[in-house]
TrEMBL record:
InterPro entries: HPF/YfiA_ribosome-assoc, Ribosom_S30AE_C, Ribosom_S30AE_C_sf. GO terms for molecular function: ribosomal small subunit binding. PANTHER family: 30S RIBOSOMAL PROTEIN. Gene3D superfamilies: Sigma 54 modulation/S30EA ribosomal protein, C-terminal domain. GO terms for cellular component: cytosolic small ribosomal subunit. This is Sigma 54 modulation/S30EA ribosomal protein C-terminal domain-containing protein. Residues 6-60 form the Sigma 54 modulation/S30EA ribosomal protein C-terminal domain. Pfam families: Ribosom_S30AE_C (PF16321). GO terms for biological process: negative regulation of translational elongation.
């Protein structure tokens, strides 16, 4: 077996408890100048992640129930 590099996992606090739409999440993401934002989607009531893609667009990941 090859050697496994152990990387430190750093905790980050980029979560908004107030439900918001994906459009509002984009505005918050731009305001905090981070790569992603975890939030509750007000349209679906699901935990979601929005992130800035390399092509300049945004991507939305939603949890399943």
């Amino acid at each position: 077996m090859g050697k496994v590099d152990h990387k430190e996992i750093l905790r980050t606090d980029i979560y908004f408890h107030k439900p918001m739409t994906p459009e509002e999440a984009v505005l918050q993401l731009e305001a905090i100048d981070k790569g992603f934002l975890v939030f509750i989607n007000a349209e679906t009531n699901r935990m979601s992640i929005i992130y800035h893609r390399r092509d300049g667009h945004y991507a939305l990941i939603e949890s399943r129930r």
